Amino acid sequence: MGCGCKKEGATGNCVCDILREILDAQSDVVENCCDTSCEQSINDLLGETDPGNGLDTVPVILYCKDGCKPFKGFGAYRGSTLGEIGECVSSFVFRVKDVDDDCCAVLELLRSTNDPTHCDHLKDPCDQDLSNLDNTGICITVDLDCFCHVTCLPAISVID
After folding, report:
1. Nearest-angstrom CA–CA distance, 61 and 6
2. Contact, 21 vs 42, CB < 8 A?
3. CA distances from 151 to 12, 78, 86, 156 (A)
4. What is the distance in angstroms between the CA of the first residue and the CA of the last residue of the chain?
5. φ and ψ at residue 21, rounded to 5 degrees
6. Is the separation of the CB atoms in 113 and 132 below 8 Å?
7. Please, where are the H alpha helices in 28-95?
8. What pTM value is reported for the model?
9. What DSSP letter does each residue of 105-134 carry, written as one string?
10. Under a CB-based contact definition with an 8 Å cutoff, are residues 29 and 45 in contact?
11. Contact by Cβ (8 Å): 88, 122
12. Cβ neighbours around 56 below 10 Å, total
């Protein structure tokens, strides 16, 4: 069962297809009637609206098929010594790192330095501080067939 947004040459999984498009745009660091949308964020990232803007990331929020709830990813920082697990973090916002031919994606958790790092406080994406999002270095692998919706936030810069 598709999402109804299949384009010619697409996989049939609209979440997979848009994340591939974001990944392609981010790797390369259209006129649109929406101020905030995936297409607008991709255009901003590619410098079509403001060349040389320094943007490198389209932050995304994914929604699970079952119940169409926002997906929250979890991970942990590396500890101070080899073999040690650091503090647990969670996020609803991700940077696409890779999408393979089977629609599995590697996503990096994005977080604001203002957000507390404990995992329990985030109940939905609006609970997360979206100002000054930064990369965490924490990546997760997901099956994009498990998602029915993707929300793109405005393009930002997180790469130093």
Report:
1. 20
2. yes
3. 18, 29, 30, 14
4. 40
5. -65, -40
6. yes
7. 38-45
8. 0.77
9. EEEEEEEETTS---STT-SSGGGS--TTEE
10. yes
11. no
12. 17
| Two structure tokens written together for 121 | 């406080």
Listed in sequence order, the residues at least 6 apart from 160 whose beta carbon sits closer than 8 Å to its beta carbon are none
Task: Give 88-121 pLDDT, tens digit per residue.
Answer: 889 999 999 999 999 999 999 999 877 765 656 6
Position 99: which residue type?
V
Q: With H, G, I as helix, E, B as strand and everything else as coil, classify residue 135.
A: strand
Q: Is residue 60 within 8 Å of residue 96, measured between CB atoms? A: yes
DSSP letter assigned to residue 50? S
Give the residue extent of every domain in the chain.
14-152
CB 104 within 8 A of CB 143: yes
Please give the structure tokens belonging to residue 91.
């996020």
The residue whose two tokens read 């406080």 is 121
Which regions of 5-146 does DSSP assign to beta strands (E)?
A: 60-64, 73-78, 85-91, 94-99, 104-112, 133-143
Q: What is the pLDDT of residues 44-79, one digit of tens each?
A: 888 876 777 889 999 999 999 887 899 999 999 888
